[in-house]
Amino acid sequence: MTHVVLFHPAEHGHTVETPGYHDGEVFEDLDAGLSRRDLRRYTGF
């Protein structure tokens, strides 16, 4: 599980979204995640 910390000024009207690019699928380690990425031919953001 990745932990993301966002330090941002306390202002109203901002939304932070963290989309899942693997349809909720999780991986045991980085290599497994990269293998899945390669199967989908995902090239970047």
Instruction: Give the biggest beta sheet.
Output: none
- The radius of gyration computed from the alpha-carbon positions, rounded to a whole number of angstroms, is 14 Å
- Percent helix: 10-25%
Q: How many helices does DSSP assign?
A: 1
Distance between the termini: 20 Å
Mean pLDDT: 76
Global outline: elongated
Which helices and strands, and how do they pair?
Blueprint lengths: L29 H11 L5
Question: How does this model look, in words?
Answer:
The chain contains one helix and no strands. It has a domain at about 20-45. About 25% of the residues lie in helices and about 0% in strands. It is elongated. The chain starts with about 30 loop residues before the first helix and ends in a 5-residue tail after the last helix. The model has no long low-confidence stretch (mean pLDDT about 75). It is mostly helical.
Quick synopsis:
With 45 residues, this protein is mainly α. Helix content is 24%, strand content 0%.
Structure characteristics:
24% helix; 45 residues; mainly alpha
